[in-house]
Structure formats: structure tokens, C-alpha cells
Design brief:
Helix Hairpins; 13 helices; five-stranded mixed β-sheet; four-stranded antiparallel β-sheet; Heat Shock Protein 90; rod-shaped
Length: 469
């Protein structure tokens, strides 16, 4: 259910606007339809009242035979008219209050012409004829005649009001009055206009939403870009006042973050670099000592300290070092690094993947691949490399023959100074910065480093980089 619902604010607002538009249109059409039906009812009662007055005025002084002759001459399929000794409306009780009031009006208005009783009822449509008199619209008739024929057919098929009026001599005048046909609210002629108005409303809503949400989309893009590369260029401070304000805030935040990170990186690099001077003096003084177990132990300790200082410098100067990105033949890079390790082999050595060109910083990418290969060799004895390309992604897979890593700790090993090997031996324990540096370099190039346990044993490390355009 959550996948069906929209996940962004602009889409939510657009759906609300469209829903409001539909509801308002439907409510408007319903109100118009209801008002038009009520107006038609009043018009139908008026027409019946007016026709009753005309017919009674015409026939009240005539003899019964003359009334029948007159009714026969005025009779037609739509406006039925008869004179008889029995009423067409047999019930003397009106069907509703409107008809009862109309009957009283008719008796009061026509009493001077000798009308003593009036009865009115509603009759449903019979749908017997498509056009009065069987007239069929031909291809050569004009538009006005065509509209009149259609209207006549609608009157013939509409509901009717039947009235029975009794003269003083006991004869009944019976006639029908068709109701005004209610045309459709939406027609083929009006539908394009409604669609055009709805389209204009939706288009203007989309344009307005894009303008209103521009600062949010800009901030989302900028923050995501800053997260990937803190040295990315600042965003343009142009547009509306809100957009300029948001851009200035994001640029100020980026500048502060960059200054903060660079200060800490320079501090760490300076500390690690300054350690080399006293370490060098200690090594020189150590050479003056005679060969002994203590001298050998001190030499190992100094080597460990120098290794730690070098790793910290590499980690701290990763973002500080300015290096431009270049197009790199990834296969040649991996092959040159593998040549420096006797424990490394290629699974697809005889099917070299050509055209694996990526864009990255050469020195940094070499450090990334070297760290991953060295990590596999250090902890897994041997490393098996394979390269492949799919969906414009270059994937370097490194499988070692070690014990692997517990599933719960696969992500934790990417943290700084995290070591699963708890010994203090630098040859087996490491410093815990190799994977951190490798992932940072891969992400700065638009790629990623992931770890998983291979089904056949050992740890599988995958470096994915985008293929150069």
C-alpha cells in the first residue's frame, strides 16, 4: 500500500489539487442539474396551466359535438387532446403537493368558463416514437431543421403531464403536456471545453508546484552532492528570494563543513608527519646500541609506529590532496597492481575485458584497489580476481580463501580504526583504515565497495565503478 501512495510532497499537493478540481466540477454539475430540473418543473406546470386556459377559453361556449370536432382537429401524437364523458385521470387525489396546488389554481382560474373540477397526474415516458410523424432526418436538411427534429423527438419521448378538466355540462376535456426534456450536462460539444479548462488548471498547478518546491529540490540535490563530494562547487544563488535564501544557506553550510573537515585533516596529517622526526632520531640512536633482544624489540616497535603514522597520513590527506580525475583503463590498472602480489591470480585471465574505462583520480584509485587486494592477501592467504561489465557498471570481484566475516559485522569493518583481528600484531591485525580509505575513494568516483561471504568459502569483495561515457 505504501508503494502505491506518492512519496513526494509535490505529487501529494498535485493529487490534492486534482481531487479538489474533480470534486468541485462534480458538485457544480450536480447543482446545475438539480437547479435545471427544478426550473423545468416550474416551466412544465406553467405550460400546462397556460394551455388549459387556452383550450377552455376556446371550447367553453361550444356544444359537446363541436368540442369533439375541435379536439379531433387539434390532436397529434405529442400533444394528445380528447373530449369524452369520462376523465383520463380517474383518481381525484393528486400525486403530490405540487399537482394538488396546480389543480386548485386551475379550478379557481377557469371557474368563470364553467370548469368545476380539475385533475392532473404525471405519466412516465413511453418511448414509442423517435420523431413526430415518423419524420427522419435526411442528409440534405439544414442545421436548424435537424435541431428541431431532435427536439421534437425528445419531447415525444419525455415524461408527460395528463390533465382532465370537467365542464359544467359534465363533459371532460383530456389533454397531455410533455415535460421539457432535460438535456445532458456534458455533451460532445461541451466536453472539449471542460477538458481544456481542467488541463489548464492541472498545468498551472504543476508549474506553480515546481516553483514552490524548487528550494526543496535544490536543497535535496545539493545536500546529496555535498554528501558525496564535499569539494563540489557551490550552487548558483539565483531565482526567487526563497531560492536565493536556501542556496545561500546551503553554500554557507558547505563552506563551514569543508573548513571543519580540512582543519581536522590537516591537524591529523601534521601530527602524524611531525611524529616522523622524533622517530627518525630514535632509529638513529637505536643503531648506536649493541645487538640485543631489547634492540630488536625496539626496532619492531618503531616500525609499527612508522606504519601507523603513514596510514594516518594517507587517511587524513585523502580529501586534502588535490588530484584531477582522468580516464583510466581499469583492466591495466588492476593487472599492474596484481603483478606486485604473488598470491593474486585472475579467474578470467585469458578473456580480458577490453574497454573498461572509468573516470577517477589515478593515484587514489590505485590506492583503493591496492588496499582491497592487500586486505584479501593478508587475511585470506590468496586472492582470486575477476572483472566484468554489466549495465554500464564495472565490477572487480576479489575472493580470498580466508574464514570470512560474520554477517553482522560486514558493514562495521568499514568504520575507521575497526579491526576484527584483536591481536596487537601489525602483520595480522592491521590498523583498520584500509577498507575505510578504499570505500571513500570508490564513493568519490561514483562507485561503491561491498563485502559478502562467498558460498564456497572466503570473503568476496566487490568494487563497482561507473563506466565512462
Amino acid at each position: 500500500m505504501r508503494r502505491i501512495l506518492p512519496q513526494t510532497l509535490p505529487v501529494w499537493v498535485l493529487l490534492i489539487v486534482i481531487a479538489g478540481l474533480l470534486i468541485s466540477q462534480i458538485a457544480t454539475l450536480y447543482i446545475v442539474s438539480h437547479d435545471r430540473a427544478a426550473a423545468n418543473d416550474v416551466v412544465d406546470l406553467y405550460r400546462l396551466n397556460d394551455r388549459a386556459f387556452s383550450l377552455v377559453q376556446l371550447m367553453h361556449d361550444a356544444t359537446p359535438e363541436q368540442r369533439k370536432a375541435t379536439a379531433s382537429g387539434l390532436f397529434n401524437a405529442t400533444y394528445a387532446l380528447t373530449v369524452s364523458n369520462t376523465p383520463a385521470v380517474t383518481s381525484s387525489i393528486a400525486g403530490d403537493d405540487e399537482l394538488a396546488e396546480l389543480e386548485d389554481i386551475l379550478v379557481g382560474r377557469l371557474s368563470k368558463f364553467g370548469i368545476t373540477d380539475a385533475r392532473v397526474r404525471r405519466d412516465p415516458a413511453t418511448h414509442e416514437a423517435d420523431a413526430p410523424g415518423g419524420t427522419v432526418a435526411g442528409p440534405d436538411i439544414g442545421q436548424v431543421e435537424r435541431d428541431l427534429l431532435v427536439l421534437a423527438a425528445d419531447f415525444a419521448q419525455s415524461d408527460k403531464l395528463t390533465a382532465s378538466l370537467r365542464f359544467a355540462d359534465g363533459q371532460w376535456l383530456n389533454f397531455t403536456e410533455p415535460n421539457t426534456p432535460a438535456g445532458p450536462i456534458l455533451s460532445f460539444e461541451s466536453l472539449p471545453l471542460y477538458a481544456l479548462i481542467a488541463g489548464l488548471v492541472v498545468a498551472s498547478s504543476i508549474w506553480s508546484l515546481r516553483r514552490l518546491t524548487a528550494p526543496y529540490r535544490m536543497m535535496e540535490t545539493a545536500v546529496k552532492r555535498i554528501g558525496e563530494d564535499l569539494k563540489s562547487p557551490p550552487i548558483a544563488e539565483s531565482g526567487s528570494r526563497e531560492v536565493r535564501t536556501a542556496a545561500k544557506a546551503v553554500n554557507a553550510m558547505q563552506a563551514r563543513l569543508r573548513a571543519y573537515v580540512e582543519d581536522r585533516e590537516h591537524l591529523a596529517a601534521a601530527l602524524a608527519h611531525d611524529l616522523r622526526t622524533p622517530l627518525t632520531r630514535m632509529r638513529l640512536r637505536l643503531e648506536l646500541l649493541r645487538n640485543s633482544i631489547v634492540r630488536t624489540a625496539l626496532a619492531h616497535d618503531l616500525a609499527d609506529i612508522e606504519g601507523i603514522a603513514s596510514s594516518v597520513i594517507d587517511f587524513a590527506t585523502f580529501e586534502v590532496t588535490e588530484e584531477k580525475s582522468e580516464r583510466i583503463d581499469f583492466w591495466s590498472l588492476v593487472e599492474s597492481i596484481a603483478d606486485g602480489f604473488e598470491e593474486v591470480s585472475f579467474d578470467n585471465e585469458y578473456t580480458r575485458s577490453r574497454g573498461l574505462i572509468c573516470v577517477a583520480r589515478p593515484v587514489a584509485l590505485r590506492r583503493c584497489v591496492t588496499n582491497l587486494v592487500q586486505n584479501a592477501v593478508t587475511y585470506g592467504k590468496k586472492a582470486h580476481l575477476s572483472l566484468r561489465q554489466s549495465d554500464r557498471i564495472i565490477t572487480l570481484a576479489i575472493r580470498d580463501e580466508g574464514p570470512g566475516i560474520p554477517q553482522a559485522e560486514l558493514d562495521a569493518v568499514f568504520g575507521s580504526f575497526v579491526r576484527l583481528e584483536q591481536s596487537r600484531n601489525r602483520q595480522t591485525g592491521g590498523l583498520g583504515l584500509g577498507l575505510t580509505i578504499a570505500r571513500n575513494i570508490a564513493r568519490s568516483a561514483g562507485g561503491e565497495v561491498s563485502l559478502s561471504n562467498h558460498p564456497d568459502g572466503g570473503l568476496l569483495t566487490e568494487l563497482r565503478l561507473p563506466l565512462a561515457v
